[in-house]
């Protein structure tokens, strides 16, 4: 089984070509401005969250863990989760995002994958996780529903098939996504 990263799953739902360029045709990646800003803000939020209570997450007690390196052999996935809340009954993955926009499906699938991984990694349950939108300081609960879990599993199979075929997928339907893509210069048929 080809080992993948959770960030690959998020990218797959954003644009399948990113998976192609990452695994089939490894090319230098540009570090975009949003990527740089996001990395700095993740560190700042990690420091601030350590001092805050869990009430903002609707929880009375639990333990925070930050930058959790996690792996799930059954899924063939690895990743670094921004934050994990552990209670006696459950685990709650938390992803920090630098956006004011609505939460896109690719981000939801990333969170669901982390929930599935945390369940295996810690032998617990993850019924929902959280997206922390940094600019608004808002927290949104996302259910880790059976249908989303199935979509994650199917996408992982599709990603491995894409890598095995070594054929570049078509461009994304919404080519506005290409404007800030780190692989934009390799796609000659968009924008």
Please describe what this structure looks like.
There is one protein chain. By secondary structure, the protein is an alpha/beta fold. It contains five helices and six strands. The protein has helices spanning 6-14, 16-24, 33-49, 105-122, 146-165; strands at 4-5, 63-72, 77-86, 91-97, 128-133, 138-143. Strand 2 (63-72) and strand 3 (77-86) form a beta hairpin. Helix 1 (6-14) crosses helix 2 (16-24) and helix 4 (105-122) packs across helix 5. It is globular.
Using brief descriptors, characterize the structure shown:
single chain; 191 residues; alpha/beta; six-stranded mixed sheet; 5 helices; 38% helix
The count of strands amounts to: 6
CA-based gyration radius: 17 Å
**Approximately how much helix is present in the residues?**
25-40%
What is the overall silhouette? globular
Number of helical segments with 4 or more residues: 5
Q: Let me know the average pLDDT.
A: 86
Query: Helix and strand succession?
Result: EHHHEEEHEEH
